[in-house]
Design goal:
There is one protein chain. The protein has about 160 residues and is an all-alpha fold. The chain has one domain. It is about 65% helix and about 0% strand. It contains 5 helices and no strands. The radius of gyration is 20 Å and the shape is globular. The model has no long low-confidence stretch (mean pLDDT about 90).
Length: about 160
C-alpha cells in the first residue's frame, strides 16, 4: 500500500456551503416552529394555526379539519421558511447578537398579521383576536426569528473567522 492512499477514517468531509446551511436552517426552523404553533393552537393558546392560514383560508372541505391538513400546512410553512431564511441571509447575515433576530421575528409577525392578513380570509383581523392569540403568536415569531437569524448569523460569522485563520 502506498503512502498516497489515505485511510477513510482520516479523510475530512468537505464542509456544506453557506447556501445549503441557510436552506436547511430555514426548512427545519419552519417545521419545528410551525409544529410548535400547531401545538399551541391544539391546546387553545391561540385561535390561529398553520392550518388556519395555509389550508382553511382557501379551502372549505371536510378534510381540512383532519391531521392531513395539519401535516400539509406544516410542510408548506417549512417550504415558505426557505424563502424567509434566504431573506435573512441576504439582508442580515452580518449582524451580531440577538436583537436583530428578535426584530426580524417581530417584523415577520407584523408583516403577516398586518400586511398579508387580507389574503387570509379565515383569520380574524388583529383587532378581533384575543390577547392570548396575539401574545402566543408574537412569542412564536420571536423564537422563530431567533432560531433562523441567530443560526444563520452564527454560521456566517463562524465561516468568516475560519477563513481568516
Amino acid at each position: 500500500m502506498g503512502a498516497k492512499k489515505q485511510l477513510e477514517q482520516n479523510k475530512r468531509e468537505k464542509p456544506a456551503s453557506m447556501l445549503s446551511r441557510t436552506l436547511s436552517t430555514g426548512f427545519f426552523g419552519g417545521i419545528f416552529w410551525s409544529f410548535i404553533a400547531w401545538i399551541a393552537s391544539y391546546f387553545h393558546f391561540t385561535t390561529v394555526s398553520p392550518t388556519t392560514f395555509i389550508i382553511r383560508s382557501w379551502l372549505d372541505a371536510d378534510w381540512t379539519n383532519s391531521w392531513l391538513a395539519d401535516v400539509l400546512s406544516i410542510l408548506a410553512v417549512s417550504v415558505i421558511s426557505l424563502l424567509v431564511a434566504m431573506v435573512y441571509y441576504v439582508l442580515l447575515r452580518k449582524t451580531r447578537g440577538l436583537l436583530p433576530s428578535i426584530l426580524f421575528g417581530l417584523a415577520l409577525w407584523g408583516g403577516l398579521f398586518y400586511l398579508l392578513l387580507p389574503i387570509f380570509p379565515n383569520v380574524k383581523p388583529l383587532t378581533q383576536l384575543d390577547s392570548d392569540t396575539i401574545v402566543t403568536t408574537i412569542c412564536i415569531f420571536i423564537l422563530y426569528g431567533l432560531f433562523i437569524g441567530y443560526s444563520i448569523s452564527y454560521e456566517y460569522l463562524d465561516s468568516i473567522s475560519k477563513k481568516n485563520i
